[in-house]
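Known limitations

Files may contain more than one protein. Parsers should not assume a single record per file. Below, a two-record file is shown to illustrate correct handling: read the sequence, read the token line, then continue until end of file.
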Amino acid sequence: MRTVILITSNGMGRAELPLQQTLLAKYLALLADESPLPEALCFYTEGVRLVAEGSPVLALLGQLEERGVDLVVCKTCLDYLGIGGQVRVGRVAGMPDILSAQMRADKVITL
């Protein structure tokens, strides 16, 4: 089953930022131990901050990318937030790439 996970905020859930990021770090660490892994993680809106310099989950995302998970990062969002030059993991792409990943998926999960 092809799974795509959409990450649309700078953490997980609705709480203070440190708690959101702690929860996401735990989620990603557990996800890295799963088999099969998701086909892609798509980052847009505030979620793009997670692939940029200073993100507390860069190492975890790098591990997932090394294991073949496609990290798709919204260029429009990066440009809007002014952090395009700070991307450290993933591939910068457009909304057509995010839509394509969703349409190929058997299951889409939004965090």
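...continuing to the second record:
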Amino acid sequence: MSLAIKGAEVLTLVPGSGAKPITADVIIKNDKIAAIGANLDLSGVAEVINGTGKLVMPGLVNAHMHSPEALYKGRYDNMPLEIWMLYAYPILGAQVLSPRMVYLRTALCAIESLKTGTTCVTDDVYESPHQTPEQLDAVFQAYDDVGLRATISGHVVDRPFLDTIPFTRDFVDTDLAAQADALGSADKDAWLAHCKDAFTRLHGRSGRLNFMVAPSAPQRCTVDLMQDAMALAEEHDAPFHTHILETKLQAVTGQEFYGETLIAYMARHGLLKERTTIAHSIWVTDSDIEMMGDAGCSVAHNVISNQKLGAGVSPVQRLLRAGVNVALGSDGVSTSDTTRMFAVMHAAGLIHNVQTPDTDLWLSAEQVLSAATLGGAKSACLGDTTGTLEVGKKADMLVLDMTTVPFTPLNDAANHLVYCETGSSITHTIVNGEVMAEDGTCLRVNEAELLAELRAEMPAFLAEHSKTEALNRQFEAAFQKVHQKAQGIDVGVHRLGQEPAWPS
């Protein structure tokens, strides 16, 4: 199988090469990039795409997504994280989904991702009360069918829910607390066996799909589970994916539970490593940033989700300067309400400018593009596989029409990609050397049929979920008090934007 793009403007995003495109041909053989250069011999190529007026760039990488939330897209608003979780990840009465419903939910995310320029996703999947092999198989099948590259988890929590958030037992009614406690928590050995089975059966499937371990967070998982998970990740050269310091309440949590920051706790237990990806990293201290840089770990910057939940803004430029690899993620599909990485890039390019008048701490378009491509690939332990256009790497790339409104008039290509483009200019999405979407149409699945099937299932699902929401609404007043208490506690983290940053 061979494919070429002739005479396009090619943006390789190779580190050190800048963000200026070069006029070149690109030859793809099987699943890899075989050559990039001007006036290449294309005589033996089976299919040639005319690159005149086109821009070729690496496919976007979504470094942190929760596809289970797709069923709640557009449902919730004006809730801080801990309140929102009562409904999106309910304590009581959560439905156990059939593998088919899991498949449809995942396919919805995969279709939107592929059509809007994402070629690679990290999907952190939590099922209640625990993920079954059949449910995990359905997630893999959906990504396989649609045609994405994906790294997929079995997300786990093995501490009782009320013991993962400080102060809850001060405010939650004792009868409600007893109901929550009666549910128990995940069994470490059973989860590890599930992960080992997934690595054996699913890891490396179709040359595009991988499994990863995802202990939810250091306050939600026992240290024994996290250390065993890290050993498993190292054995399979897979990511260790977790959530740390998304909200101020989580900053309070470290001191309340462990007498130190959650980052310091991770480092002390040997869990802060290059393969560690930390989703969020908002409420980090100076010493946290130094430890993270020394470890060379990754951060998934989930800028839209963090804004919607009022969580804060990650100090990205400081993290980059410390040596942390920064990636971009959409996060949950009901806290950002989208998987569209062009929207995430746009937000990431703008949010830091209102945090401080120090322009040295703002992000350039090139930095945003790098985070949305190679940064995301590195966080998935795929930095040598995808994320840039280089000979020998997997052929994951986008072709965009530069005669469209977002590129007219054309000035700086990087700026247009970050600030003007929405994904509407994409003509071809290529994954693993194969055109998976063309002119807004997914080529390997029937989008209309899948969406119609999901729409038909939603009334019954939402009827049950409304009952679940009512059950968990009983916790909301107590959790509001927990949230409010945390806001009044000094955690020793200076947050840009909390006080006037601009001269009066």
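Parsers that stop after the first record will miss the second one. For reference, the second record is described as follows. Residues 497-504 have pLDDT under 50 and may be disordered.
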